[in-house]
Task: structure prediction
Amino acid sequence: MNESFTEKFRGRHALISGGLGFIGSNLARALTEAGARVTIVDCELDGSGANSANLAGLEGRIELIRADLRDTGRISPVLGDVNFVFHLAAQTGHMDSMRDPQRDLTNNALGTAALLDACRNSCPRAMWVFASTRQLYGPPRALPVAEEHPLQPPDVNAVGKLCAEELLGVYMRVYGLNAVSLRLTNTYGPGMRVRDARQMFLGLWIGNVLRSRPITVYGDGLQRRDLVFVDDVVEAFMVCADEKLRGRTFNVGSQETIDLRSLAELVRRLGASDSRVEFIDFPADRKAIDIGDYVGDYNSIRAATGWQARTPLERGLTTTIAYYRAQLAAYLEQS
Amino acid sequence: MNESFTEKFRGRHALISGGLGFIGSNLARALTEAGARVTIVDCELDGSGANSANLAGLEGRIELIRADLRDTGRISPVLGDVNFVFHLAAQTGHMDSMRDPQRDLTNNALGTAALLDACRNSCPRAMWVFASTRQLYGPPRALPVAEEHPLQPPDVNAVGKLCAEELLGVYMRVYGLNAVSLRLTNTYGPGMRVRDARQMFLGLWIGNVLRSRPITVYGDGLQRRDLVFVDDVVEAFMVCADEKLRGRTFNVGSQETIDLRSLAELVRRLGASDSRVEFIDFPADRKAIDIGDYVGDYNSIRAATGWQARTPLERGLTTTIAYYRAQLAAYLEQS
Result:
């Protein structure tokens, strides 16, 4: 553990919304190791990354409130001495957001509004870091995509995340809230959802490879991505929990890019699997919200904080596959 | 009535959400006069502009569904043959949106999502015109403000309206919806809320002048505005209900500007009132979301459609004050 993290977080109280989920649980572990007192709020939304297996070994060391963010009667009592708010709770599925827009907006926009209001009253000085998404940019007009790229949310999920970013902006300007938004690219690692593609296609691929099932690639598989390993993302959250960065919005991702065809081959090789890689036409409903190639520009966060992704893709994938080789059952049962 | 409107709307079916409200009811009247069949959906939200008095004389000529937009079971059955959707239903109060963010987002963001989804299924070819707001720009960086001005919603109400605009964008790109968004500046005229400042301060001023109560101006009253008369706004909605304008966003307002101090004097003079004009310090909670001077650039809608505001402020105010001289009671009782 980074020594500066111990200094920053030891004895401090961190709230993690969505802390049973993929990134949230990894963050909970890292903050606990840095000596923070961690409280998680998670409603275990169906189809989200919430999974008790994500907190294995941390039982008893973390307070877990199983509640919807809008249930402020349950949440407010623990907020009084909160120093950091890591807001990751969300409905994450892009297709789900198109099938049920109100459910997505209720969880992501109204949920954020509820947490903001509760914290404004109970812990107005807390430092927020919000899990936003590169999805806000829509199909890139040019690569790499920096934070100044115009926003064009391609699906309801991205609209809800934009709405949440803007709510943070209002609370910063009106109430002096301290917040940073991180626009994450595809994040992978232990704890990610593998039962389906609701967090990202790579989870589903890993789940399939480990069961010798085919990996399905949409289109020609030449779409480029810049996947980032969860440990790097967790570090970005911890680095950005800093009042000096108040009001900033940063892209978070890796310099290393790969096309999906090559990624599928890599997953198959690292999984030592006899899975086939299948190419099928893009389903029309997915194509309609697909953003094509995405490569982010990560100079802004590096210039402001020194942070950059450090885990090579092959190493991160090896770690991830090893994790699921041992833990697959607990993730296939996820609701 | 403009002849081209008769040609465009006669025998066509127009849905107006928020049609009991200020602008919606004026639009309902104009569409009915142009020969359209009008259906209104309105849930008479407390604090909104909804008022049965707004439809005086139209009883029996318009179908009125008293329902929340999210009650799609009530709304969907009438959508089948809808040709035009004028979406104006909203929680409009800026201060209210800060006091109860979830209520604002529920009505404005979720309500829009619900209506979009119902229409996608029942009248996918309908032409939409959405009542958005110049509030999206936040405090102007320079005047006049054109549509390219960066967006920085200063309050939760503006966040909800931005969310609604973005939802329309998603439905256009994914489902081929036809829609235009109109970013309205302060609109005034018969039918506006005068019991309080929930629609705009001018309504409250008129209500006060007609009862010889003081008019209260915040700050020095030198803030500039470009108020637009409701008949002009109604015409903009009708002109913009045109598939050729699909995907466009237009500012809607008047070329005529005035500072609030002068406006207060004008209202007092036209009201032939002995009301005093009082200047008080900006209340802190209002100052926090105030946008300062606002003057819009209306070249874009004029270039695309020929529309421009035609009612001089003094004439529009005279009409408005005469209306409330006769009708004040029905508007002071509004919930």
User: Anything to note?
Assistant: Chain B touches chain A at residues 70, 98, 101-102, 105-106, 109-110, 113-114, 116-117, 152-156, 158-160, 162-163, 166-167, 169-170, 173-174, 288-289 (CB under 8 Å). Chain B is about 40% helix and 15% strand. The CA atoms of residues 1 and 34 of chain B lie 7 Å apart. The two ends of chain B are 33 Å apart (CA to CA).
